[in-house]
Amino acid sequence: MTQFLDSNFKLGILGGGQLGKMLCKETNEWSINTHILDKSVSFPSGRNATAFVEGDYNNYDDVINFGKEMDVITIEIEHVNVDALEVLEKEGKTVHPRPSALRIIKDKGLQKNFYADHNLPTSDYELFESKADILNAVEDGRVTVPFVQKSRTAGYDGKGVFVVSSSAKLEQMMDCPSVVEDLVDIEKELAVIAVRNPKGEVNTFPIVEQEFHPTANLVEFLLAPAEIDILIEEKCKNLAVDIINKLDVCGLLAVELFLTTKGEVLINEVAPRPHNSGHHTIESCSSSQFEQHIRGILNMPLSQIVQNSPAVMVNLLGADGHTGEAIYPGFEECISQSNVYPHLYGKVMTKPFRKMGHITITDPDREKAKEKAKLVKNSIRVEAKQ
Ligand code: ADP
Predict the structure, then answer these.
(1) Torsion 340-346-348-352 (CA) sign
(2) Mutation pick for ligand 1 pocket among 161, 186, 220 (CB with most ligand atoms within 8 Å)
(3) Mutate which of 78, 268, 315, 353 for ligand 1 pocket (most atoms within 8 A of beta carbon)
(4) What are the beta bridge partners of residue 161?
(5) Angle at 258 between CA 287 and CA 231, to 5 degrees
(6) Global pTM?
(7) For 144-191, what is each residue's pLDDT tens digit?
(8) Cα 52 to averaged position of ligand 1 atoms, centre (Å)
(9) pLDDT grade, residue 348 (50/70/90)?
(10) Do the beta carbons of residue 197 and residue 300 sit within 8 Å?
(11) DSSP 288-319
């Protein structure tokens, strides 16, 4: 009998946010016992998990105590205690993604070094310990403005990324161990999600194109499939397969890419878990990113992934100026239309630009999907109760 269909089998997920919630939805379909570790059962996956353990996925003891009760352990966020995962792996637990890969991915400096060591294309960079070291390098002419400063370990959703567009911005830099990289002339921001299982099977999802919110630095619209040349598409997919193999990751690896104005494809960063850029797959593909992650980490066959319809995904962000208990004016107008699929994560409190949900719009005609997405975006809002 397949082990994970045994009623005693336990899958453990570190992190109880929206990604955990959507993973639980998939495991519920196959009745796989899924246990979550996070600080509060009131978090998004609290009501979907088989069991929820309150604790800190950054705390060594909490991760050990949780993990030793599980058969397979995975993550929905990479900022977890890797030392504990390494010990659990040594003791014979199955941990995906492998802690060795997670250690590299968690640190943007180690990620960059990995790409350089494996001849994978990425923007030129240098690593620095502090703001003072970067300022010295600028003075010596070793670093020239403009450039991008990225905190090696603290970043998430655009936080920890600072564009030094002119010398006037130098003083505002973060004071932390950083990657300093060339400011890329970006034509399009693309993402491709690859999936792999321990047997070595690898598959990729269609490429998506991301459009960013001008001030929040979060994805505003996501278009799938991306409007790109077939050769670029092949290049992106081959790169994703190459990276997932080289990092020895099982489950998902989301690869964020820059298509430059010169037509080059550069790796920005990777995430070894479900990704915002793959949310549309729930409605638009033959198998969702969440299902594929489960297949990958449990060593199930990966089915062929087919996109059944073009899709546009809109993140539902907390409205600027609104902090407090969330309400969703315009929700009914939003669901009065066909092929509009809202997902509310169930976060009790909203604050400006907090990711509170997403909406996928499918349509055989991509232009119509885009138009509908704009209407939907203007109809629904996330505000705080007065
Ligand atoms: P995070 O890990 O917070 O998502 P990213 O490294 O993806 O941070 O950077 C966030 C955004 O900043 C990118 O999506 C892109 O718009 C911009 N960005 C990052 N690196 C560069 C770069 N080297 N050149 C130009 N823009 C960049």
Answers:
(1) negative
(2) 161
(3) 268
(4) 150
(5) 70
(6) 0.95
(7) 999 999 999 976 666 799 999 999 999 999 999 999 999 999 999 999
(8) 34
(9) very high
(10) yes
(11) -HHHHHHHHHTTPPPPPP-B-S-EEEEEEEBP
